Amino acid sequence: MGRANVLKSGYILTVGGRTVLIQALKNAGLDFWEELLLLALFNIIWCLGTVLVLPWPFVTFGLFFTVRDIGDGKAIKFTTFFEHARRQWKLAYLWGGVNLAVVLLLGINIRFYNGLETQWAAFLQVLMIAILMIWLVLQLVALPIYPRLEEPTLKLALQNGLVVIGRYPVAMVILIILVGLISLIAVLFPPFLMLSAVALIAVLANRLVAGAIERELGRES
To answer: 68, 65, 71: which is closest to 85 by C-alpha?
Structure first.
């Protein structure tokens, strides 16, 4: 992205003989370890902001923009999180508003069709659930894309997110599996949720998206 706005086609298999997927996971682990203390603090802030609801988009963008800095090897401070969030607050709340509307709309439809005992209603309920899952995965991919756009917009981030999902399905399936495992551990072990889970998911998503983008830039050069 950098100066590119839309990704083109590609594969997340090899770059220069090295497996992008494996390298992305390795780099994610290193990123998390190197900034463990600050990421734990940011994770706590994100959890508190989400519980309060209103700061949720603000802290989400602060986290993902900061994680991008970590992945790029930039030095970060505690204030980096809030500086990013403050600069991107309009975009953050636009993203939050759209997500709230989509989730509410799909949730209402799922609940409505659940109350109808017909075959077509069951089909539509499954369809709505599938759309909701795809939307959530798209957000997980689009969030690391925002910091990589010269002029980030909701449309461009979603457009690029769809391209990444479509062109790199193996990486996306692995990301979904890892996020599912992390979420399960977080449910079973609440301190993990409070201290690490969300930040770890952000780091993983950032590195996998970065791997896809590096692959595309390599193809263009």
So the answer is: 65
